[in-house]
Design brief:
The protein is an alpha/beta fold. The protein is about 45% helix and about 15% strand. The chain binds (3S,4R)-3-hydroxy-2-oxopiperidin-4-yl beta-D-xylopyranoside. (3S,4R)-3-hydroxy-2-oxopiperidin-4-yl beta-D-xylopyranoside binds near residues 76 and 317.
Length: about 350
């Protein structure tokens, strides 16, 4: 009798609290696809990697693997201010053009990154002493020129990147402090004018889960939406570790609340860094984190693009940014697929 009651209680809790919202990845059409991109297509998903123009030029294996396995790219650094707009009167599109041309040849979606950020600024901007009006004119010219150049060829833009601190407060970047909070709205409107077809994203770090920072992102984009600012999506960067990985359930709930605002919600910079040297157990734990994030994405219809911050450990930026860490991506340094590759492939080769 007592057992029966307990069972009933468990069932009720399960229905109310968790079972009802258990993430269910959408059906995929492939079951033995030859590549991640073929498998992803069967899930109505674009799967991509951040790309570095230098490796694309110099490493045939890099280029071959990229075009075989992925149908989306994000220029890792080639479209940032310091690269593309090194001096006030000079734009340099060499690397960005190389990536966009490569993507076009290989029928890959390009996710442009990034128009407004506090990092990777050339000194003429970061150390310049411009008035508010001058800085507004500079930002407008930059956005209009960069977005305009790739009109029709870059499907989406990270218009504003990392505008918030980890506690959810507005980051006092040069843009926020010299222009004021309106810079965000201005940037979206100018990007939209320059390419009305491009999807415009707000991209943020450490906002995958349900917590203070993602609440702040939610409030920010909800406010933009409610005022008719042309924003189409939110990018969750997802630079995580195996210890600090967000819970599948939380990521799904978080994605769903953005989706309910009418926004697309993509994974834009996924990587799972490990302490070096990594063990086989670490690689398996890493694979589970990749699998969970893709499960979350596949369980939310508005998650349409899943981009990793590179694909081979050979060129990962992790060791330089987090000394002692690395092995964050799905191929090792000699282009051998790691358990994480298989985890993603298995999840997408499932009807
Ligand atoms: C990083 C690149 O990977 C590095 O090569 C570069 O030196 C610094 O920027 N969030 C972002 C990315 O939005 O643009 C950053 O990329 C990683 C964190």
């Amino acid at each position: 009798m007592l057992k029966g009651i307990r069972l009933l209680y468990l069932l009720a809790t399960c229905l109310i609290v968790s079972c009802a919202s258990e993430p269910t990845p959408r059906a995929c059409a492939a079951n033995n696809a030859a590549s991640l991109r073929d498998a992803a297509q069967g899930c109505s998903l674009s799967i991509g990697a951040a790309v570095d123009a230098k490796s694309l030029r110099s490493d045939a294996m890099y280029k071959q693997t990229l075009s075989r396995e992925f149908n989306a790219v994000t220029p890792e650094n080639a479209m940032k201010w310091a690269t593309v707009h090194p001096t006030r009167d000079k734009y340099d599109f060499t690397d960005a053009d190389a990536i966009v041309d490569f993507a076009t040849e290989n029928k890959m979606l390009v996710h442009g990154h990034t128009l407004v950020w506090h990092n990777s600024l050339p000194t003429w901007v970061s150390a310049g002493s411009f008035s508010r009006d001058e800085l507004i004119a500079i930002l407008r010219d930059h956005i209009t020129t960069v977005v305009g150049r790739y009109r029709g060829r870059v499907a989406a833009w990270d218009v504003v990147n990392e505008a918030l601190n980890d506690d959810g407060s507005p980051r006092q970047s040069i843009w926020a402090s010299r222009i004021g909070p309106d810079y965000i709205e201005m940037a979206f409107r100018w990007a939209h004018e320059a390419d009305p077809q491009a999807k415009l994203f707000y991209n943020e770090d450490k906002a995958e889960s349900m917590e203070t920072k993602s609440n702040a992102v939610y409030n920010l984009v909800k406010n933009l939406k409610s005022r008719g600012v042309p924003i189409d999506g939110v990018g969750l960067q997802s630079h995580v570790t195996t210890d600090s990985a967000p819970k599948l359930q939380d990521v799904t709930s978080n994605m769903n609340r953005f989706a309910e605002l009418g926004l697309e919600v993509d994974i834009t910079e996924m990587e799972v860094r490990l302490k070096l040297p990594s063990s086989p157990e670490d690689l398996n734990a890493q694979a589970r984190v990749y699998r969970d994030m893709l499960t979350a994405c596949l369980s939310v219809k508005q998650c349409k693009v899943f981009v990793m911050w590179g694909f081979t450990d050979k060129y990962s930026s992790v060791p330089s940014i987090f000394p002692g860490n690395g092995a964050a991506l799905i191929y090792n340094e000699s282009y051998q697929p790691k358990p994480a590759y298989k985890a993603l492939a298995d999840l997408m080769n499932r009807r």
